Amino acid sequence: MNKPKIYLDYAATTPVDPRVIKAMAPFWQEKFANPSSLHFFGQEAKQALDQARSKVAQFLGAKFEEIVFTSCATESINLAHKGLLENFYLRMKEKPRVITTPIEHKAVLATLEHLQKLGWAKIDYLKVDQTGLVSLSDFDSLIKPETVLVSIGFVNNEVGTVQPIKKIGNWLKLANEKRKKQGWAKIYFHSDVTQAVGHFKINVDKLNLDLASFSGHKFYAPKGIGVLYLRSGVPITRQQDGGSQENHQRAGTENLSFIVGLAKALVIVEKERSQETKRIRNLSKRLIKGLLKVPGVHLIGNCQERAPHIVSILVDGVEGESVLLALSDLGIAVSSGSACTSGELKPSHVLLAMGISPSKAHGSIRFSLGRWTMRKEIDYLIKVFPGAIEKLRRIGKGINKN
Amino acid sequence: MAGVASYDRRVILRREIKMYSKKVLDHFRQPRNMGKMRDPSAVAQEGNPVCGDVMRIYLKIGKNKEGKDYIKDIKFQTLGCAAAIATSSIMTEMVKGKLLDEAVKVSNQAIAEALDGLPPVKMHCSVLAQQVLQKAIKNYQSKNSHR
Fold it and tell me: What does the pLDDT read at residue A289?
């Protein structure tokens, strides 16, 4: 009997779309030149680079020169935060302050912790409620004259909670107008939009974003390519020194084939979004309904403000890694936030920040859907899930867990 | 799960094993001696507060021909990851039928080796299995100290 191969970990990464592979093909051996070269080979490459950059700018409602290509979202995030803070740290008398949330991706948190350790910034953490949402009212108490940056992820990768980015952007716009009158520095707004790109319309002006980071490999482009949106006039000090590529913001010969791939992937996302997001949302609703039939299964995240593709649950009486392996044995690939699955044996920081106890976080499972997820795969999962859980619950039945 | 190449034993010890061995997966999929016991001679439960795994074992102690205590039957229950389930399962296999004096000496390294090794981050599961066994034996011996 053939074991099925069902991938439900799209939030971790995605396969490259065949159309993206096709778009990238000419750039290995035909249009391989360095876009900085002045000869005809180079100019052809430059043209392709410009076209790709335009497409990305168009997707975000941004300007051509506001797009910086990087190797991944993590690099974009490092560049945004370190670039901005290095600039402010050198120019400000008081230590700059940054507001963020405790549920950000490690790329944001670790970068900010590093900056704090260097003494370049003081980090203020917004509270999140049990569903992972931040509250705008907390801003009032956290904003200080020395606050220079607010960094809040659009969609959380672990539980799928969608933050009110537009509201936050508007709030900051008004706050900045007041601050200008008081002679205080402007507060810049960064958002890690990695998990949002695939399903949400992102217009940098409507959201009032100054910076935004994302990776290609979450929306069917290859791994190894990312974007930093950098609004004109936002002062960052480049972090990767060398030549003058990316408008002097990030040196290094452009990864043209991957840039073209990413641009193509974005065009596809834009074109198919309304249909695809609806399809995925219906599938995840179906999945949630099926999972909740099993006793002791709890959906986490926010009921309304949730991404269409992420379904995060807590299961009583089982541990996440063992569920992961059991499902893997059944041909289904998923993820977990339990301590046993992390390299450092600590439960997911996102779950803990949401007030979930370490022992409950023990039973966390995350399913994430994508372009090739089919209804029959969801139905198969719903069918085999209860049995897999029952078997594991039997192994741990007599345990008194306080 | 992707196949793990059959490494030379020395290589296993030198290199960091990131994936589970076939034996670990086998015990995870088909745990031995799993369940509760009626009228156990001793029960013990131990938990790992860091990772959250919890193991519970039941011992049935009998006397052999020489009148010495031995593990007549043993059962386990584990709430935890694959390594936790596998280490407790194989531990029960290793000590069933053993004299108490022998069983108490079973080390966590022996448990890990019996599974053809564990990833370094999972070694603590073998320690937990050793601890719960020793605790159960101690529980029995303190109850039966006059023997």
Answer: 98
Confidence of residue B17 (pLDDT cuts 50, 70, 90): low
ipTM for this prediction = 0.86
Q: Is B133 exposed, middle or buried (0-12, 13-18, 19+ CB in 10 A)?
A: buried
Chain A residues inside the 8 Å CB shell of B4: none
Tell if the CB–CB gap between A325 and B28 is shorter than 8 Å. yes
Judge contact between A128 and A353, C-beta under 8 A. Answer: yes
Residues of chain A with pLDDT under 50: none
What does the alpha-carbon distance between residue A162 and residue A132 come to, in Å, rounded to a whole number?
A: 8
Q: What's the confidence (pLDDT) of residue B146?
A: 55
**Domains recognised in chain B with CATH numbers:** 18-143 (3.90.1010.10)
Q: What is the DSSP string of A288-346?
A: HHHHTTSTTEEEES-SSSB-TTEEEEEETTS-HHHHHHHHHHTTEE-B---GGGSTTS-
CATH 3.90.1150.10 fits A6-14+273-395, yes or no: yes
Chain A residues closer than 8 Å to B54 by CB? 396, 399, 401
CB atoms within 10 A of CB A214: 30
Of A322, A329, A358, the CB nearest to B80: A322
Which of the four pLDDT bands, split at 50, 70 and 90, describes residue B18? Answer: low
Contact A169, A134 (CB under 8 A): no
Tell me: pLDDT of B7 over 80: no
Q: Are A322 and A389 in contact (CB under 8 A)?
A: no
Measured distance CA(A53)–CA(A45) in Å, rounded: 12
* Cα A282 to the center of its chain, rounded Å: 22
Nearest residue of A to residue B82, measured between CA atoms = A322
CATH of A18-268, one of 3.30.360.10, 3.40.640.10, 3.90.1150.10, 1.10.260.40: 3.40.640.10
